[in-house]
Amino acid sequence: MEGLTVVTNPTVNVRITNTISSFEMTRRFNRGISIAELKGKLEMLVGACPASMDLELFSVSDIFLQKMDDNEALLGSYSVDDNCRIHVIDNSGQINEFTDVSKVEKFELPDDAYGKRPDSMRSFMKKQGVGQFNEEEQAKKKADIAARNDEQKAAADALSVGNRCKVQVPGQPTKLATVMYVGTADFKPGHWVGVKYDEPMGKHDGTVAGKKYFQCENKYGGFVKPLSVTVGDFPEEVYDFDEM
User: Fold this and answer.
1) What does the angle CA 14 – CA 50 – CA 82 come to, to the nearest 5 degrees?
2) H-helix or E-strand spanning residue 25
3) How many Cβ atoms are within 10 Å of 35's Cβ, its own excluded?
């Protein structure tokens, strides 16, 4: 093999990532610089102080290779090839001023000023009579809601505390229960039915948002809309969970 010369490119093209931002950049460095010198150059790129900087080397396919923790070693002494990735870890805890949105002054347009803008989406919807500005559609929605509320109230009026029932909520299994409360509630508008399930398939003990509406064991209580409740002869089943 006499006379054979191996030529190594004196520079290397690497990808740079860091913990301060999500941006990736590509830079070319001389293999003859030390890691300390490399950190000085990286400071200008990522904004991290060399004293608080750790470097990690990853392969072309982003597999971790090693830490670059010897400041006196040359860059070329590491297995750095073109398109490898050097990841900069900043241990100072700083947040990049360009990515910290909490420091960005927010522009807020008052609602009345927005309503006067002729080029806004609200103005376009008004002109086209769509969405909330379609009077006929909005009137129909209000009528549908009122009719539904009347149905819920009528269903609630037909219920009494102590009724045995089955609860059928769309998307949930049918449950047997006892009616414990009928009426309005503070947690949400409309009429509600408080039930005690035969099994621990509820959410509470009859208390919601600090207000007690009825008493039962925890996880046995629940609230449902009146139309989800059907009264009937549903004997209470006794479950012996110690034998299950």
Assistant:
1) 10
2) strand 25-30
3) 21
Residue 198 corresponds to which tokens in the numbers above? Answer: 């035969």
Residue 244 has a pLDDT of 46
Q: Among the residues of the chain, which ranges form H helices?
A: 35-46, 111-116, 121-128, 135-157
Q: For the range 210-218, what are the long-range contacts, defined as Cβ-Cβ under 8 Å and sequence gap of 24 or more?
A: 211/186, 211/187, 213/180, 213/181, 213/185, 214/180, 214/181, 215/180, 216/180
Residue 223's nearest CA partner among 237, 240, 211, 235 is: 211
Tens digits of residue pLDDT in 38-77: 999 999 998 889 999 999 999 999 999 999 999 999 999 9
- Residues 6+ positions from 87 with CB-CB distance below 8 Å: 17, 18, 19, 55, 56, 57, 58
pTM higher than 0.90 for the full model? no
The 8-class DSSP code of residue 192 comes to E
Residue 183 Rama label (left phi>0; alpha psi -120 to 50; beta): left
**pLDDT tens track for 149-183:** 999 999 999 999 999 999 999 888 999 999 999 99
Q: Which DSSP state fits 209?
A: T
Q: Which residues contact 221 (CB under 8 A, 6 or more apart)?
A: 180, 194, 195, 196, 197, 202, 203, 204, 205, 206, 207, 214
pLDDT in tens, 130-140: 777 777 788 88
